[in-house]
């Protein structure tokens, strides 16, 4: 992986995200898979992390493959981008998927955004917001997403927030399955709006969106949602920026307490960190 300090010619985001996703997979017991660091960008519809139409041929084929014990297992092992059968795309798989499609220009935008916003502008934070909009829209309430990313801005505990969100998405999907309810069709433009709203809460807090921030946001959102189109993304970013400047967008600062299950999970994580710290010392 190239040095992130080389701003004049930054490494492709693919090498940064794929390596990190593989490391996260090996740490948490997920499948690791090796992703190519070659720069590739195909402006196709990002259907890989969308909920498939159950009546479509692709949706039917995916369900069949995922339901076959041996074939489904092999498909999940060799497909490092997830989404086999009815599986949800987790955050590591989402990063890997997006990272493989990023160009040098996209990579530079993520790095420059972090330079401008500091820790709150970490590429992983931006991508977490995009993942919640891309995968979680229809499963998570907007309030849940904004509460989580607001917590992340303060706690810097991205692993905890990822696990909390993924557990909530799985629970919502299971509930929908029991009720035999169909997945809502949420347009990609709406997902972009939700992603930008989460990015603003997480990365800006109450700060205004400056012109250079707008440019970088357009590049990053286009990298994640290429099928929406640059002009549509620019309109969404401009509209949000104007709302913030005119004071029409209410800042999201009030945090609700975590559920009992979430607190217990966080305490277990802290205990594991303490045990590792004692062993290393």
Structural write-up:
InterPro entries: PSA3 (IPR037736). One of its GO terms (biological process) is photosystem I assembly. This is Photosystem I assembly factor PSA3, chloroplastic. It comes from Apostasia shenzhenica. By secondary structure, this protein is an all-alpha fold. It has one domain. It has 12 helices and no strands. It has helices at residues 13-28, 57-67, 69-78, 91-101, 104-117, 123-134, 142-155, 158-179, 188-204, 211-224, 230-245, 260-280. α2 packs across α3 (69-78), α7 runs parallel beside α9 and α9 (188-204) crosses α11 (230-245). The longest helix is centred in the middle third of the chain and has 22 residues, at 158-179. It is globular, with a radius of gyration of 19 Å.
Mind sketching the topology for me?
Blueprint: H1 13-28, H2 57-67, H3 69-78, H4 91-101, H5 104-117, H6 123-134, H7 142-155, H8 158-179, H9 188-204, H10 211-224, H11 230-245, H12 260-280
Helix pairs in contact: 1-4, 2-3, 5-10, 6-9, 7-9, 9-11, 10-11
Protein name: Photosystem I assembly factor PSA3, chloroplastic
Organism: Apostasia shenzhenica
InterPro entries: PSA3 (IPR037736)
Total helices: the number is 12
Helix amount, in percent? 55-70%
Output the radius of gyration.
Answer: 19 Å
Terminal Cα span: 30 Å
Largest sheet: none
Indicate how many domains the architecture comprises: 1
Give the mean pLDDT. 73
Broad shape? globular
Q: Care to count the β-strands? A: 0
Low-pLDDT windows of residues: 1-10, 18-48, 58-85
> Helix- and strand-based class?
mainly alpha
Content of β-strand: under 5%
Taken in chain order, the helices and strands follow as HHHHHHHHHHHH
């Amino acid at each position: 992986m190239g040095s992130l300090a080389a701003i004049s010619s930054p490494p492709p985001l693919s090498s940064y995200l794929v390596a990190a996703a593989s490391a996260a997979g090996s740490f948490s017991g997920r499948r690791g898979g090796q992703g190519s660091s070659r720069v590739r960008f195909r402006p196709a519809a990002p259907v890989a992390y969308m909920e498939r139409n159950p009546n479509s041929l692709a949706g039917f084929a995916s369900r069949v493959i995922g339901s076959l014990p041996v074939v489904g297992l092999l498909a999940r092992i060799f497909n490092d981008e997830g989404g086999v059968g009815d599986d949800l795309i987790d955050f590591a798989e989402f990063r890997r998927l997006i990272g493989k499609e990023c160009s040098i220009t996209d990579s530079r935008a993520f790095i420059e955004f972090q330079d401008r916003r500091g820790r709150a502008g970490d590429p992983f934070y931006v991508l977490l917001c995009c993942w919640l909009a891309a995968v979680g829209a229809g499963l998570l309430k907007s309030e849940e997403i904004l509460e989580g990313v607001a917590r992340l801005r303060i706690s810097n505990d991205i692993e905890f927030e990822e696990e909390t969100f993924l557990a909530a998405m799985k629970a919502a999907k299971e509930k929908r399955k029991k009720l035999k309810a169909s997945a809502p069709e949420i347009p990609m433009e709406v997902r972009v709006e939700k992603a930008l709203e989460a990015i603003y809460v997480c990365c800006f807090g109450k700060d205004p969106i400056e012109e250079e921030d707008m440019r970088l946001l357009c590049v990053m959102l286009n990298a994640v949602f290429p099928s929406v189109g640059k002009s549509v993304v620019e309109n969404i970013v401009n509209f949000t920026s104007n709302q913030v400047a005119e004071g029409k967008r209410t800042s999201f600062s009030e945090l609700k307490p975590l559920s009992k299950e979430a607190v217990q999970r966080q305490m277990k994580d802290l205990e594991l960190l303490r045990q590792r710290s004692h062993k290393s010392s």
